[in-house]
Design goal:
Layout (H helix, E strand, L loop, with lengths): L1 H22 L12 E6 L7 H15 L3 E6 L4 H9 L5 E4 L1 H9 L11 E3 L7 E2 L2 E4 L14 E4 L5 H12 L8 E4 L2 H9 L5 E3 L7 H8 L3 E3 L4 H10 L4 E5 L11 E6 L3 E5 L4 H12 L2 H5 L25 H9 L7
Parallel strand pairs: 1-2, 1-3, 7-8, 7-9
Antiparallel strand pairs: 3-13, 4-13, 5-12, 6-9, 6-10, 11-12
Helix pairs in contact: 2-9, 5-8, 9-11
């Protein structure tokens, strides 16, 4: 009986010790005193940003002791900015232009969100992609009037692109029948004859766009020089870009479009500088794992760590420290 009592006491003490160990965040061989929980905003599950976020969180979880990062699907850049504002997310994928609008208080943001910082240099340069079914007869955005058009979910980066593109042609949603859908659903609608055209936030070379153009029943629609000039009046950072020939099936010629500054990863300025340093370092020391998500992400490398004066959103102090150590930015 005495032996059994001793065994029971030893087991109880062991359980208490293990419980205390986990309570102090030492239950895993991470060496961290407490787990670090990070929520990352991305975009819709059908796009490129969601798997990009998953890949980045996987890197952080494996490279940073105690890190518990998870990527969540969101409505895109405007939604991500709001999630960081309310502290419902800690880090997010974001279009540079959208982050710039928010940080400077431009419409539709009622106040300057000066707490926004970049954890990375550029991920990749984004371009507008406009598509129409051949049956619709559309060869120019000016012909969208009276047509059935698909755009991204309300408030998403792609939907912002659509509104601004139409405005550059003197059009608005009131001039057409608009469906607000994820880009994969929008392309299905065009393919099935339920929509005539679309302006959708989709990565260059997207497999879904490949599928849409495979049967040669749809075309890419160019954006004219006059429309680009109008776009630059509202935002001087828009640039002329091209969709290279043969990016998609049945696309033998390059298509003129509009480009935007590179997408970035954003955090709040008050995020711990040492943590941001580790997160930035982990990404750039494991680039192949992120680049494997999409050919477009081959652009994600030191070449898009732009000088401070070229960044629409300033670097976080922790990120900048890493870039200075690597010799990619000058010390201040």
């Amino acid at each position: 009986m005495r032996f059994k009592t001793t065994v029971v006491l030893v087991l109880i003490l062991a359980m208490v010790s293990v419980g205390a160990l986990f309570a102090n965040g030492q239950g895993e061989s991470t060496g961290s005193s407490k787990p670090i929980f990070i929520t990352m905003g991305t975009a819709g599950v059908g796009g490129m940003n969601y798997p990009t976020g998953i890949a980045m969180c996987s890197i952080w979880n494996s490279e940073i002791p105690g890190m518990k990062a998870v990527a969540i699907a969101t409505g895109g850049s405007p939604h991500n900015i709001d999630l960081l504002r309310t502290k419902d997310a800690d880090v997010a994928v974001c279009r540079s232009l959208e982050a710039y609008r928010a940080s400077t208080g431009q419409d539709p943001y009622p106040e300057k969100m000066e707490w926004m910082r970049s954890l990375t240099g550029g991920l990749f340069v984004d371009v507008f992609q406009v598509v129409a079914s051949k049956e619709s007869g559309i060869t120019d955005v000016s012909q969208f009037k009276g047509k059935r058009i698909v755009v991204g979910p309300v408030g998403s980066g792609g939907e912002v692109d659509a509104r601004e593109t139409l405005a550059a042609y003197g059009l608005s949603y009131d001039d057409m029948k608009v469906s607000y859908v994820e880009f994969s659903q929008g392309m299905d609608m065009i393919k099935d004859g339920l929509a005539d055209a679309g302006i959708l936030g989709v990565a260059l070379g997207s497999s879904t766009m490949q599928e849409l153009l495979l049967d040669n029943k749809s075309i890419l629609v160019p954006i004219t020089d006059a429309a680009l000039a109008n776009l630059k009046k509202s935002n001087p950072y828009y640039i002329r870009a091209m969709i290279p020939a043969n990016t998609y099936p049945n696309q033998p010629n390059a298509v003129p479009t509009v480009g935007t500054p590179p997408d970035i990863i954003i955090v709040r300025a008050d995020t711990d500088a040492d943590l941001v340093y580790k997160m930035t370092k982990a990404l750039y020391e494991n680039l192949p794992a992120v680049q494997a998500v999409s050919p477009l992400l081959q652009q994600f490398n030191r070449n898009l760590v732009l000088p401070d004066e070229d960044m629409l959103v300033p670097y976080h102090d922790g990120a900048r420290r890493y870039f200075v150590e690597q010799g990619w930015l000058p010390a201040k």
